[in-house]
Each structure stands twice: as structure tokens, then as C-alpha cells.
Design goal:
This protein is mostly helical and 136 residues long. Strands 1-2 form a two-stranded antiparallel ribbon. α1 packs across α3 and α1 packs across α4. The longest helix is centred in the middle third of the chain and has 17 residues.
């Protein structure tokens, strides 16, 4: 997948749609809060063990801060990560969940072959294929 070089930061090793990216996005969208692994697991609907291991890895890699009593949080000095999350949000606004979940596609006013039997449709198909020379 190509990257826009002006905004590309080789220091950020996150890919949209991964658990790492989802956790970072959640914390950076809520920078005034600290979260326990259990709270992250519940908020993102992921297994608690996955949340705990991923949070530790993100902390070790310098993406997140951690309080002495175990709450993970966004880092104010990571403008690059804030830009990454902002780009996720922008992409979601452009292409994401704006579609009405209850919307149904419009039914066509007339379905092709609606008033014909299978035999009539097969005969018409055979005639068209003969005209094209397919059955030679």
C-alpha cells in the first residue's frame, strides 16, 4: 500500500485494523483518561489477556504512558501518534460508518425474466449463444 511521504513517519509501526492500532486510537481519542487493561478489553471487546499483552508492548515501544498503579494513557509529547489517530478518524469520516445500517437497496421495478419459465429463458440463452457462435 503506498504511503503519502509528507505525513509518513517510519517511527510509527501501527497498521489500521490491528489490536495495537485500535488500542492506541482509543487512548489517544481520550487523552485525559487512564485505563486499566480490563477497561480497554471491555471497551474494544477483545480478550483481557490480549489487551494486557498489547498494552505492555505498546508501553515498552513508547506509544503509551503508564501510571504507577497500572493505568495506561496517551502521551502528550507524541504528536506523531496523535496525527496517526487523526488520520484514522478522517478516513472513518470519509469512508466509514456514515451509512444507515437499516437502509435497504431499492428493488428494481422489473426483474429480468420475471414472466418467463426456465425453459423459455434457456431457449433464449441458447439462441443468443448461437448468434455469437459460442456453441460451435
Amino acid at each position: 500500500m503506498p504511503v503519502f511521504l509528507e505525513d509518513h513517519d517510519t517511527e510509527i509501526d501501527l497498521r489500521p485494523g490491528t489490536t495495537k492500532s485500535d488500542i492506541v486510537a482509543h487512548l489517544y481519542r481520550n487523552p485525559e483518561w487512564g485505563y486499566a487493561p480490563r477497561e480497554i478489553a471491555e471497551a474494544l471487546e477483545i480478550p483481557r489477556g490480549t489487551a494486557t499483552a498489547t498494552l505492555k508492548r505498546l508501553y515498552d515501544e513508547g506509544y503509551l504512558g503508564k501510571t504507577d498503579d497500572g493505568y495506561y494513557h496517551a502521551l502528550g509529547e507524541r504528536a506523531d501518534v496523535r496525527r496517526y489517530v487523526a488520520s484514522l478518524d478522517q478516513a472513518d469520516r470519509m469512508f466509514g460508518h456514515h451509512r444507515d445500517a437499516t437502509a435497504q437497496p431499492e428493488a428494481p421495478p422489473h426483474r429480468i425474466g420475471e414472466d418467463r419459465t426456465d425453459e423459455e429463458l434457456e431457449a433464449e440463452l441458447a439462441e443468443l449463444e448461437d448468434d455469437r457462435g459460442v456453441n460451435e
